[in-house]
Amino acid sequence: MIQETGRIIEIKEIDGTKTAIVECVSKSACKSCSNNDNCGVGVVAKSSRSKLHHLSVPFEEGMNVDASVDLLIENKDIIQSSMIVYVVPLVFFIVGTLAGYSFLANELMIIITSVLFLVIGVYVAKAISNKVYPSHKINKLVSTK
Question: Partners of 58 in the beta sheet?
Fold first, then answer.
């Protein structure tokens, strides 16, 4: 389970239900490593700004503006979404590469076929993701503590 702490910045009504708008700051993991002064990635991470993200979560009694709240996402949802995002395009890429090697003799055409199948895989992954996690369901994935 992933846990992130956010700050409630607003409580408003969306589509007839009370919703809390939570602001989270994404931080680079490289800033916490003990070797970040000697690592090139750590130096780049220090120069980058933290990004703010706003999430809508269902309102619960006791929530107030400027209060901290812990957001939780279940492991099964993380694994399922990762499989969709990474595995589907990879499988399409591999199928495109194998098809290119089987039917084409020109190396440039094999590369173009592989990339074309990869792009198709990205769009298929996006369609699957929208089907499995429609926008109205995303807020229900994040629970509060």
Answer: 19
User: Could you tell me which residues come within 8 angstroms of residue 18 by beta carbon, excluding any fewer than 6 positions away?
Assistant: 11, 12, 58, 59
Helix axes 88-103, 107-132, angle to 10 degrees: 150
Rounded to an integer, what distance in angstroms lies between the CA atom of residue 55 and that of residue 4?
A: 12
Q: Tens digits of per-residue pLDDT, 9-40? A: 888 887 788 888 888 877 655 656 666 566 76
* Structure tokens belonging to residue 37: 């002064």
Ranges of beta strands (E only) in the chain are 2-14, 17-26, 51-58, 68-73, 143-144
Classified as helix, coil or strand, 39 is coil
